[in-house]
Backbone:
């Protein structure tokens, strides 16, 4: 079982926010069930966390046994493109205007959908509509 991790999971752990204890427990359970992985865009977003450095991030990932998939292959890009296009079309058709959801979420979702068994996120609504077959924690 491979579990993709969204940026907001690690951010919650680092910030000690309200759900951090529950997040830590679920993350431990996911690690017991198999590999933990983040894709390159999650790594990039984590570097923007206040006071984060490459050394800190790399140490954290190694100590928590989180793999980084830095290579995003063509099928992921194509899947993200199609899902983002579908979203943008729905938004325009509904009169909601231009797309507001961040493109990076579609890349994270496509990577999780094609290369892992599930995605651990604190924002399930963001992925439910655009990746209905993606299993979420």
Residues:
């Amino acid at each position: 079982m491979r579990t993709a991790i969204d940026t907001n999971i690690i951010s919650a752990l680092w910030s000690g926010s309200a759900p951090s204890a529950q997040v830590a427990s679920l993350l431990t359970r996911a690690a017991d069930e198999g590999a933990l992985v983040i894709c390159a865009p999650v790594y990039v977003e984590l570097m923007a966390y206040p006071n984060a450095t490459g050394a800190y991030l790399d140490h954290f990932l190694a100590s928590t046994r989180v793999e980084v998939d830095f290579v995003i292959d063509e099928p992921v890009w194509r899947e993200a493109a199609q899902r983002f296009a579908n979203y943008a079309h729905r938004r325009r058709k509904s009169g909601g205007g231009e797309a507001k959801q961040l493109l990076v979420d579609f890349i994270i979702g496509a990577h999780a959908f094609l290369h892992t068994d599930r995605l651990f996120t604190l924002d399930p609504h963001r992925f439910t509509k655009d990746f209905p077959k993606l299993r979420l924690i």
Observations:
- The mean pLDDT is 93.
- The chain has one domain: 2-128.
